[in-house]
What does this fold into?
Amino acid sequence: MCGIAGQLKFKGVVEERKIVAMTDAIKHRGPDGDGVYINADSTLGLGHRRLSFLDLSTAGKQPMTNENGTIWITYNGEIYNYVELRTELVKLGHVFHSHTDTEVIIHGYEQWGSGVLNRLKGMFAFAIWDETKRELFLARDRFGIKPLYYYFENGNFIFSSEIKGIKANSDVKTTLDHTSFADYFVYRYVPSPKSIWKEVKKLPPAHSLIIKSDGSVTTNEYWKIPFAENVISDRDAVEQFDVLLLNSVKTHARSDVPVGSFLSGGYDSSAIVYYMSRFGYTPATFSIGFEGWDVSEHIYADMVARQYNTEHHSLILEAQSLDILEHLVWVYDEPNGDISIIPTYLVSKAASEKRKAVMSGEGSDEFLVGYQWQKDYMPGQVSWFQQFLSRLKGKKNSQMLDYYAGCMAMGRFDSNELRKLLHPDLHIHISGDPEWWYKKLYNPSLPDLKAMQVLDVKHFMGEQVLAKVDRASMANSLEVRVPFLDHEICEFVFSLSSSVYYKKEDTKHLLYQNIKNHFPDEILHRKKQGFVGPDKYYMNYDWYKKHLTQSRLADDKIINRNYIDFLLKENDHWRLWKIAVMELWYRKWV
It folds into this structure.
């Protein structure tokens, strides 16, 4: 896992010192090494920070090139089927000089061009410079596990793994995007391809971008979740899921350094430890808990750790201030209002002291119906009146999206609330439909459950959760691998009728059937719990008063001071949390 950066100039020349400044800004992503490549006419510069896992020798150094120096790459990620692809490429006549997955991408691009993306299994963000074509090819993995930002102004194209890498280049000038500012309060993040800055964009998940020598830019969505229905028995579905997950965990364990695992004692992380045990791998495991909380995750993680004899490490948090947010707004670049950003950062920090890579269970809830809001919307779970509304012509879409927006909000900001929050001068930046992003992602042709799962994959997981995990882990030079987020697992599950993979009586049916004989009832029948900690952790109203009574956002006439005073009086901690995250971010970056 690494950090990447680069610049392509159509006027003037690229300066090496500016590329170095960019990679220095993201050195936490790769403390094991660094590199810069400037092409012959100084129109292109690539930078890299390395966190090494495969071929720890200098042969793995990046930016990396092919044999004749016509193809150059800077790459962040892990390609889990690189061994198989390498074997195929060798048979096709390609000669390798390292044992890295990086070189597999180079030769794969030589062989298949942009079609190499369809052959890669893993998480990645990379940029390839093709000297012969004089074009830059960027791509991001299917789910958005790895980030990629870019800036293109006045013939100057700049990219990096993080916004702080872009902003470290002195050619860059940025201004706050007030529409993105409003979006944050609705979604708890800024949706792709927007960013909090007008001039900076995110490359969305499953997209590639080509910028040619004439300055033209084209983007392409190279993968979508397929929905062709696969007729299969329940038993066969359980067995095939087992094979797919075992293979994914096994390939995710490929590394020249030991790989650990986060362990919460929930289905997903416990299952990963179990599947690792099936091929003889006993990982170091890491959990986080809260003192005095009777459902603290570390209690259940300890049970699994003892059962599988892992080298287990628990971090127990006592009553703490929220002051760590002042550091996290540097970590996250953009404001991220997910309330689990604190425990995610802290458990990553603890794990980084023992391992360079760990596995985590993201993706399981989205694919296998693990979230309560998914189940609560199913027939038989919602009220007769809601069911009636959903059958009314033209009402189904708005009723589901309104329900979903309510589930996601954690302190909902609709048009009225945004007008109360924002200074009147900024009301022009409030969208006519503040929840436009949900409508863009929603596919009304799908059955209700699958439509909601796709929203979770593309919105909640793809834009918020994965960004949270990436920044929290990489700020600590820790790689997080997510074996459930294998596109073949995703394609398999979504090809099934939801009646095959969703059973009211089983939590995450396909997974439960494969692990039910391998864990005690305390694990198997444990109530679903988010990675957040007790509510009281976020109800420190003295802390909110300390940071918001003298609000810089209010001083600069961006938000209304009287609205903050109202929320403080009402003890509305969810809306206060979102405002506090933005307040601290604004002080740091603006």
Remarks:
- Residues 234-370+454-532 form a domain with the Rossmann fold fold (CATH 3.40.50.620).
- The CA atoms of residues 279 and 464 lie 32 Å apart.
- The longest helix spans residues 448-474.
